[in-house]
Structures are given as structure tokens and as C-alpha cells.
């Protein structure tokens, strides 16, 4: 497999998905947040990582070291040294973006504590992973030195550091993937909508798959001592790029729900609220017709930007663009007015609203 074709394809796909996410959040849902800023930062770091991979390839990635000029070998190792911390930082920023998204969606106090805990762990472990990559050798120029003695005396042991860092990345991926699933499963919504939302969040399993594949290639290379094997080096770079870009893509899928709901309405759009005791009048009927039926009518409107503090018993908020708990759903489609009770002259509009009477809007 051509490492350039694969890395270019998935990096380009990540750019498109992030652009769609930002457009959805800023223009469609109008609910931008810190999670969007973090995913934008992750993409910028990922593009820098991609540039360093191109540098590695330019200086002979995929060729045996014995076939390269010493100057080429040093340049390739220099770009390898630059790429490792940027690869790790891409993953860490993507995880923080997912956690900040969770804070916007899930408002249950029982969920906030583990979220902040994993954030603290990720901050400490992330600092170690990035700094250990930058200062793998002290002085740092010994990383691209061709002297075996310099590597032995001034560099960290490669196998323990790389494998432990990869294991930390996989562990945090597993925790972040599993955190929202119980809350999502217990939502009091239609099975079709629940399956759609679980599928969106469940795409994170692909991140774990690519991380595991990269760890396998890395372990194989270390176990066989194939650091100078061109095929092993290409595989390590390819899986690193796949992991970084797949992480960004999967982290963008839940915020893309308002856009996805318009494209795949069967799985994602909420269903209308049925009322056996209510009559239905199309919303496009004139206000004169409605006023004849309801002497005192109350107009219900949905806010364009719900507050993150509006949530129900499930602990799921409405600011995420993923799930709206109320009867008025943002998006395309027609709406109807359900009349549950005719307000008499003796009752005021306020009483009707306070007691849940009058008429309400639901999607049809």
C-alpha cells in the first residue's frame, strides 16, 4: 500500500468532515463551543503531522537505510522526530474535544465526576506523552544522529516508551467510548432514534481498531528488532496517520447530527408525539381558524439556541445538537398543533400554559 495515497486520502477526509462540523455548529445549529475549537486545533496539528510524513517520504521513507545517503537518513530521522509529538498531540486534542462535547450533552452530576477525572488523567498523561516525544534524546539532536553510542547513552529506551504511550492512548479511547453508552441506552426515546444515536457514538470503535493495529505493528517491529526494516517503518507511519485522522472523523460525527438528520431521516429524526385525546390541525392553518376553536390561544416557539442547562431526568441536555427532549424539534419537516383542551373564557392563557393545557406543537 502506498503510504502517500492513504495518508493523503484520510487527511483530506478529516479536513472535509471538520469543515462540515464547523459549518453545522456555526451556521446550522448555531451552537459552537470549546469542543469545536479543540477539534479545529487537532486538525491543524494533524496537518502539521501530515507535512512531516511528506518530509519523511521525500527523504526515503520505505527504502532501506543501507540504500540511503547518510544525509538522507539524518533528514528522515529529523522528520520522524518532529512527527511523533504532533501525532500524539492530535490524538490528545481530539479526546479533549470529545470530553468537552460530553459536558455539553450529559448534565447528570453522576456523569460529570468521571468526565472531569478522565480529563485530569488525560492532561497528565498527555503532557508526558508529548514531552517524552520531544525530549526523547537529550540533547535532542542525538535522535537523528547515526551514532549507536549516542542513542544508547542519551536517549530513552524506545520499546517501553512507545508501547506504554500507545497503551495509554488505547485505554483512554476505551474509557471515552464507553462513558456515554449507558446514558444513551436508557434514554426514553423511540428505538429507531436510539439506535441511530448509538451508531453515531459507536463509530469510536474504529479508533480503537486502528490504535490496536498500530500497536500490533509497533510491537512486531520492536520484537523483531526491525527498526531499519523499510516495510515496518512504512506500516508504523501509515497506521499512525490512520489513527489520527480516524479519531478526528469519529469525534465529528455526533455534532454532525443536525446535518445527518436531514440526510438520513429514517434513523435520526425524532418521531411525532401522539395524543389519543387530541385533535390535530395543520400549523399552516390561518390564525383566524385556530382562534375560532380556541378563544384564548397561546403561541409556543422553540428557541434557536437552547441553553445547555436545560435537561430532563435523563441528564441529557439540549445544546448538543444531538438530541432534543422537548416536543418542538429543530430541523426540516412539517409541524402540527395538537389541541388537548379548549380554553374557556373563565380561564386565562397563563393558567392554561401553567397546567399544560391549551395546544402544543409537535413534529409530523
TrEMBL record:
The chain crosses the membrane at residues 6-24, 36-55, 78-103, 115-141, 161-185, 197-216. GO terms for cellular component: membrane. It is found in: Membrane. InterPro entries: Rhodopsin_dom_fungi, SAT4-like. The keyword Transmembrane helix applies. Residues 20-262 form the Rhodopsin domain. Signal peptide: none annotated. It is a multi-pass membrane protein. Pfam families: Fung_rhodopsin (PF20684). It comes from the Eukaryota. Keywords: Membrane, Transmembrane, Transmembrane helix. Belongs to the SAT4 family. This is Rhodopsin domain-containing protein.
Amino acid at each position: 500500500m502506498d503510504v502517500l495515497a492513504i495518508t493523503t486520502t484520510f487527511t483530506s477526509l478529516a479536513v472535509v468532515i471538520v469543515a462540515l462540523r464547523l459549518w453545522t455548529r456555526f451556521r446550522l445549529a448555531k451552537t459552537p463551543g470549546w469542543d469545536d475549537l479543540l477539534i479545529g486545533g487537532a486538525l491543524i496539528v494533524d496537518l502539521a503531522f501530515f507535512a512531516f510524513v511528506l518530509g519523511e517520504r521525500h527523504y526515503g521513507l520505505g527504502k532501506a537505510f543501507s540504500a540511503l545517503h547518510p544525509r538522507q537518513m539524518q533528514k528522515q530521522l529529523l522528520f520522524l522526530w518532529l512527527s511523533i509529538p504532533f501525532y500524539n498531540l492530535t490524538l490528545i486534542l481530539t479526546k479533549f474535544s470529545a470530553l468537552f462535547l460530553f459536558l455539553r450533552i450529559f448534565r447528570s452530576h453522576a456523569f460529570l465526576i468521571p468526565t472531569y477525572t478522565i480529563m485530569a488523567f488525560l492532561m497528565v498523561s498527555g503532557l508526558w506523552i508529548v514531552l517524552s516525544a520531544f525530549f526523547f534524546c537529550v540533547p535532542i539532536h542525538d535522535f537523528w544522529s547515526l551514532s549507536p553510542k549516542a542513542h544508547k547513552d542519551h536517549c530513552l529506551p524506545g520499546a517501553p516508551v512507545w508501547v506504554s504511550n500507545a497503551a495509554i492512548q488505547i485505554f483512554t479511547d476505551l474509557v471515552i467510548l464507553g462513558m456515554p453508552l449507558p446514558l444513551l441506552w436508557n434514554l426514553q426515546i423511540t428505538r429507531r432514534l436510539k439506535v441511530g444515536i448509538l451508531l453515531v457514538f459507536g463509530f469510536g470503535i474504529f479508533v480503537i481498531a486502528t490504535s490496536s493495529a498500530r500497536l500490533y505493528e509497533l510491537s512486531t517491529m520492536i520484537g523483531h528488532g526491525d527498526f531499519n526494516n523499510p516495510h515496518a517503518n512504512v506500516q508504523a507511519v501509515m497506521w499512525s496517520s490512520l489513527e489520527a485522522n480516524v479519531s478526528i472523523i469519529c469525534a465529528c460525527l455526533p455534532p454532525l447530527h443536525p446535518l445527518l438528520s436531514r440526510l438520513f431521516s429514517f434513523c435520526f429524526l425524532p418521531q411525532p408525539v401522539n395524543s389519543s385525546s387530541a385533535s390535530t390541525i395543520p400549523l399552516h392553518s390561518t390564525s383566524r381558524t385556530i382562534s375560532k376553536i380556541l378563544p384564548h390561544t397561546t403561541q409556543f416557539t422553540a428557541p434557536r439556541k437552547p441553553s445547555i442547562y436545560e435537561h430532563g431526568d435523563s441528564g441529557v441536555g439540549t445544546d448538543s445538537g444531538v438530541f432534543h427532549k422537548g416536543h418542538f424539534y429543530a430541523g426540516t419537516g412539517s409541524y402540527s398543533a395538537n389541541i388537548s383542551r379548549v380554553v374557556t373564557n373563565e380561564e386565562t392563557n397563563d393558567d392554561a400554559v401553567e397546567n399544560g393545557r391549551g395546544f402544543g406543537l409537535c413534529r409530523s
